[in-house]
Design a protein that fits this description.
single chain, 432 residues, alpha/beta, eight-stranded mixed beta sheet, six-stranded parallel beta sheet, 14 helices, 14 strands
Length: 432
Amino acid sequence: MHILKIIHGYPQEYNAGSEVYTQSIVEELSKTNKVSLFTRIENEYMPDFEILKTIINKNFSKYQVNIPRGKDGYRHKTLDLNFESLLLTLKPDVAHIGHLNHLSTGIIDILKKHNIPIIYTLHDFWLMCPRGQFLQVGFGKETPFTLCEKQNDEQCALNCYNRYFSGTGDYFYEDLNYWKNWINRRMKETKSICNKTDFFIAPSKYLMNRFINDFEIPQEKIRYLDYGFPTHYLDASKRKKNTTEYTFGYIGTHIPSKGLNLLIEAFSQINENVKLKIFGRTIGQTTKTLRELAKNCTNEIEFLGEYNNKNLVSEVFSEVDVIVIPSIWGENSPLVIHEAQACEVPVITADFGGMREYVSHLENGLLFKHRNADALSKQMQFAIENQDLMRELGERAYLYSEDQKVPSIDTHCIELENIYSKVSEYSHCQTL
């Protein structure tokens, strides 16, 4: 089978969850299938929409489209035309989309035009929410990053796109109507993707139910399938504790939605002799601000930068006793929770979204009230005072398998291949 995998970023240029998951599946799928990856780069000095080809091995090639300046758009005609030319050369059997943000929604129409079956893994709310997380920008508001319950054109314009208003009071309603109309067109575009996509995969039941109930994806067109993980290197037996002080760890980007400031605030309330180690790619002024917050803490906070995901056990999990996921949005199925569970590292996370789906309080980890630093600090203090119990919670690991092991990447990819085959067969019958 020739699989075309489409994603908005790929390691090492991009190292968030959906990108790391994509790397895992394409490496596994390419062992027995031909895989073409279509993703993006951001090179300010190359022409927009130019496509670079890199041959990874005999079964796996990477195609990167250059799009450094079009982040707020959702459809780009030249990108679509270049993608179509590539598609006619590749002739894949199936397309598996992971994300179209920073690419173009027109990719869907090109695939449909050429009768390529489309599977779409939902990694966040981007089809339902222009910003993908139901988290308001809050430009000019007293409290930024407020959660939204559902999408509304006017509220989107007022709370997320008002940063593009002219700032001239006389034109306020003109600006408001412009962005309401823009958002309305954008939402019609993403809504149409539901009809054009053959099948959706959701890595959490929370996310699946949101798309069924709030976005009207038919139940027969979507199924829950948790992520798979490369357990050959995510192995608890390879974890060797390297620190003597009790150490909390954070893994992830430094963007505000990840709640790293909340974690630093919570950690600052602890009066024990403990450490916090922060792993992940730095982001200029954002990271600088987080470092300034960390200076207010009497205990040590280390910013340790990026790591190679294949060295996650030795470089990260061997350096910590507990992993904390403090995200302030509704994470659906955080990879870091599963990765920690694979290595029997206990997890503290919020009682919201897919986070509480994979961590049950005092069963395989600890939960705190979402977006509440005091509640997080309380659970961190509990972990310090109950270290033997925390080790037991880590060993209980994954909730949804008899052996408490996270799904392996090889069994996961077998499931994906079954989905590809069934969708391809159905699509072919429909075409006939």
